[in-house]
Amino acid sequence: MDAKIKYSGIFAVSAIGIYLLFGLFTGLIENPFFRVGGMIEKTIWDYAFLSAFAVLFGIVVSLIVYNNEIKKSGKRAGASAICGSAAGFLAITCPFCNLLIFSLLGISGSFAIFAPYRLELRILSIALMLIAIYFSFSSIRNVKKGEMLNKREVQK
Description:
Layout: H1 2-25, H2 44-69, H3 75-91, H4 99-113, H5 118-155
């Protein structure tokens, strides 16, 4: 029972943390530090995507922590999670609201490059997070199969 509480806590902390971090830095959550004005109105879909992404991020982090504890490398899951997180950060709000994109590309570059592809970036980030979950589960499954094979060999 302690393991369930531990991994549930890791999930909750990482999901809430990424929700607040991405929400604050992209201006989706109003705050006194990053006052950004939106040229594109914030919609319920922005909040829904941020919530779904935070849940998937929490699942990925808890699975990667579990993989590390059973001494199984999660390089593919980690790489997919990093790429998915980067795509998710870029796809959360309008390109003007996301200060990172805006400071790197300016207003014309951010609207020319990122505005037309927000939906595709969102789909890509969700897909990459799902791939990270798949890789994590497959490495856990491989460890469990190896343990079962070792038990069978010992019994013989």
